[in-house]
Amino acid sequence: MLDQALDFIVSSADRARPVFAVRPDALETFLAARPSAQAAFLRQGGFCAKPQELVLLPGNDGVAGAVLGLGDDRSPNAFGGLAARLPEGEAWSLQPGDYDPGAAVLGYCLGAYSYRAFRTPERKPAHLLAPGQGQALSLAAAMWMVRDLINAPANVLGPAELADAAMGLAARHGARAERVTGAELDAQYPTVAAVGRGSARAPEVVIFHWSGSGAGEEARTVSLCGKGVCFDTGGYDLKPSAGMLRMKKDMGGAAIALGIARAIMEADLPIHLSVRIGCVENSVSGHAMRPLDVIRTRRGLNVEVGNTDAEGRLVLCDLLADASDARPDLLLDFATLTGAARVALGPDLPALFCNDEDFAAALLKAGEAAHDPLWRLPLWRGYRSWLNSPVADLNNVSTKPMAGAITAALFLERFVAAEVAWAHFDVYAWNDSTQPGRPEGGEAQLVRAVYTALIGLTALNAV
């Protein structure tokens, strides 16, 4: 599950038909430079360079080229509809224009994605000539991997298979990796073990460590943690069938963490990287955790289980405690954690919670630059008491039916050392419908934003 071949991208071709990408304010200049017959064809057809507007240009032997309207869209998604709309059988070449070539190739690749494990796509993506775009292709491959992992059915991708994928990625890049299972898992990550105890498929934690070739002793340490709940029934607080329908995507945070790790390692960024993935299934059985059970965490705090469907924060809390104790320079966690974040921000905006102002600013700026947006919500101290428990140090859910994303983040904050710069991302990791560059299904949110931020923070020593 680590690779689909991006074999529609070619580095050379005997003949490649041109694709011109045009913005409205440059349309007249573009038309004046075209052969008169093509200019007349475009004018008479009403082409005005609107976003996703595509016209095939006629030639003596059929199609001579294509013109794509960009409107004012500067994101990779401006090119996300091309792969499915350009005719097959020939290579195409993007001509220079008012756009970023890397973003264009990335958008083309993202729009060409489909989940292919169980069926052959109806058509193949048109071939694109894209020499010298290694970084864009690396990011595209990482994001395809994330989408594949999220889209995999739960009977195909369980805790062991997710752990296999993490171990395979680590091995590919020479990282030091280990799998924690059984009695060792019970001792080291008791909350992960508690969440997974109800399933016939045993929980695991995968940990790997990697250093870039240019990472000396003074290089930054970056730690990533991912919630890998391969299917979430809700446990004894059982979800309704509609709420369970997409719960194969509840490991989206783990997939995103692995995608970011892959991008970092393939780019050989000069950092020390640690990754922790909690691979687990939340099921119902005689062994499953029950409402009002009390679980002792790795941090030593006792947690009362107010709701068994709030299992993601239990998976993450032990991972964060472990990662935090290593005192990384930057600690980031990713999770499809709360419906409350989606109510507040919708599916396209992951929620960011951060305890460091400079780190938060860098992430928000990078998200904007990479057209991979996120939105900051507060770690509002006034709600901390909502997690109080009469029998334990804290409850895993709030006593109030409000601010669910904030109280979940405040729960996780209890397991992070105050001096560690920490960012928590509450993501949807799914496209409800197909849009240019974003096919329906699993989505690799935040990969570009976090990768861009880490490049900047590594270069500028900003946090």
Can you characterise this structure?
The protein is of the alpha/beta class. It has 2 domains: 123 residues, Leucine Aminopeptidase, subunit E, domain 1, CATH 3.40.220; 322 residues, Aminopeptidase (3-Layer(aba) Sandwich), CATH 3.40.630. 34% of the residues lie in helices and 21% in strands. Strands 7-8-10-9-13-17-14-15 form an 8-stranded mixed β-sheet, with helices on both faces. Strands 1-6-5-2-4-3 form a 6-stranded mixed β-sheet. It has a 3-stranded mixed β-sheet with strand order 11-12-16, with helices on one face. A hairpin with a 2-residue loop joins strand 3 and strand 4. Helix 4 packs parallel to helix 5 and helix 8 packs antiparallel against helix 11.
Descriptive labels:
34% helix, six-stranded mixed β-sheet, alpha/beta, 463 residues, Leucine Aminopeptidase, subunit E, domain 1, elongated, Aminopeptidase, 2 domains, eight-stranded mixed β-sheet, 21% strand
